[in-house]
Amino acid sequence: MDVSGQTRIVTREMHTAGEPLRIVESGYPHVLGETILEKRKYAREKLDELRKFLMFEPRGHSDMYGVILVEPDHPKADVAVLFMHNAGYSTMCGHAVIALGRYVVDKKIVALNKPETQVNIQCPCGLVKTFVDCSNGVPGKVRFLSVPAFAFDLDVAVEVEGHGKVKVDIGYGGAFYALISAEKFGFSVRESSVRDLTEIATKVDRSPTGSGVTARLAVQYKRGLIGLNQSRAFRSVIGTTFTGSVVETVMCGDFTAVVAEVSGEAFYSGSCTFTTEDADQLKSGFVLK
């Protein structure tokens, strides 16, 4: 789908622990498909210009994140979501799930219940159960239970330009992550500059990364560094935190997996109406690398 002067998309802006989220509210075409994976494929193949329109500059930036609410096909889901970012469509995003839990209750898509409201969100990786604290009569902090997460492989040797071979752990938390301590590159996440960190990682999440926390918990459990129901705080480069714990062990194929609980808080930051003009050569967006 091409972007034109008739393109008009309305969004609600939120952030979770500093990481932005752009929620599409209107103006986005109907996403076809019987299943959420078919819808994801359709968006990628037929509507990708709109992802670039919303995620790229001048309306977004290389670290922008967005979601599109679609009809669920899971019988227990309240809503379904497609995640999008500067490079494509991810299978899971924990910070987005935390924000959506609050958003869905605020929009009365799911009725508020005290002291806690459950919102089941169908993601491309599976059904994610979120629990919104409503003890004060309004939505507050949110926790979610992950899909089965596991350590796919440990101490995998990979070649990193300028650093030679390094060993990483591969963890799955709804999406796959290569996990390595910044100290192995001579950096400190808390003390090194963002510029130094991005030279290695190309981008830095403002939040502790919800699905990344899930993957880290799975790897830590595999290594015996955390036990069942043991809570741990994960701090971002800007000082915001998520809390995570392993609450259950399950089998996922041949892997001994865990169900992780991750909690955080999301806030509203604005509303936007995005438009363009046919004469604008940059109407589809651009990425400055």
Automatic annotation (TrEMBL):
<comment type="similarity">
    <text>Belongs to the proline racemase family.</text>
</comment>
<dbReference type="GO" id="GO:0050346">
    <property type="term" value="F:trans-L-3-hydroxyproline dehydratase activity"/>
</dbReference>
<dbReference type="InterPro" id="IPR008794">
    <property type="entry name" value="Pro_racemase_fam"/>
</dbReference>
<dbReference type="Pfam" id="PF05544">
    <property type="entry name" value="Pro_racemase"/>
</dbReference>
<protein>
    <recommendedName>
        <fullName>trans-L-3-hydroxyproline dehydratase</fullName>
        <ecNumber>4.2.1.77</ecNumber>
    </recommendedName>
</protein>
